[in-house]
């Protein structure tokens, strides 16, 4: 069981009315709403919309080619099928036709040129777009197997859930994302917001989004990066301008550090501090996610589980139970210690 000082602190925390925690709680409730299903055919951002229209054009051209070729095959099968009076003799052989050979050379070349120019136009529009004043800057760093998000303009770091403001198409306020990798190749992909862009070690790539609707958009790493590649998920939370400012204000605030002193003591006396950061404490690790405002997120383990007390406790006790092959070790804590650390982390709004 938790020690008496720790239990007293827990009781005090449960009974305290804290506006700061209430704000974070409302944010988590909003994040719990059903996320938008990934769908490249339902774009909600200018880059994704450009890719969608290009894909429709390419599919239309390919469909037309398929219909023509398939129709000719069907015609040949019917027109030249074996008949009852066929004597089995070989038909007249015709060698060479300049008209046919010219047609099947020129037409494919023209189709390829058209598709190339259409693709180049979209690539240029997306890659070379000018960012207006007021653009939100975010640095996304891929780790095995989670996402780190840095907000250099505001001076804080978070993980796995990227918050951005909604963009008015009449007065765009895009988000520019600088992409880097801390270990191996990753790929940032949120189908409804933009195309795939790789994160490559020792190289800096860039992308941008300007979501037109608020909500939660689901994405993940699209480049195999190790055992838990499939569970390297991410959530892009598109907030209204007012909600985005509230979220920024919450992230800039220091966490509550003394609500559960026993759990904090255990956390800071283990190797947890070598991997994780909690602002205002001696935990300054960068190998794992920043936990300063852990409870403002809807999920843990890079989207592998909902951020509930039960899942959080299981994650601390046995990370492999939620994410086999992840790089977070089990700290071999006793059951009372796990309870105390869980109670402490639950205060990090």
Which key terms come to mind for this protein?
349 residues, alpha+beta, Immunoglobulin-like, Helix Hairpins, five-stranded mixed β-sheet, 9 helices, elongated, disordered N terminus
Please describe what this structure looks like:
- The protein has helices spanning 4-15, 19-31, 46-79, 98-127, 241-252, 261-268, 272-275, 309-317, 335-345, and strands at residues 136-143, 146-151, 156-159, 161-165, 175-181, 186-189, 197-199, 205-209, 215-221, 233-239, 299-300, 305-306.
- With 349 residues, it is an alpha+beta fold.
- Among the domains are: 4-18 and 256-345, Immunoglobulin-like, CATH 2.60.40; 46-127, Helix Hairpins (Orthogonal Bundle), CATH 1.10.287.90.
- Helix 3 packs antiparallel against helix 4.
- The model is unreliable at 1-32 (pLDDT under 50).
Draw up the topology in text.
Layout: H1 4-15, H2 19-31, H3 46-79, H4 98-127, E1 136-143, E2 146-151, E3 156-159, E4 161-165, E5 175-181, E6 186-189, E7 197-199, E8 205-209, E9 215-221, E10 233-239, H5 241-252, H6 261-268, H7 272-275, E11 299-300, E12 305-306, H8 309-317, H9 335-345
Parallel strand pairs: 1-5, 4-10
Antiparallel strand pairs: 1-2, 2-3, 5-8, 6-7, 6-9, 9-10, 11-12
Helix pairs in contact: 3-4, 6-9, 8-9
Short description:
The protein is of the alpha+beta class and 349 residues long. The protein has helices at residues 4-15, 19-31, 46-79, 98-127, 241-252, 261-268, 272-275, 309-317, 335-345; strands spanning 136-143, 146-151, 156-159, 161-165, 175-181, 186-189, 197-199, 205-209, 215-221, 233-239, 299-300, 305-306.
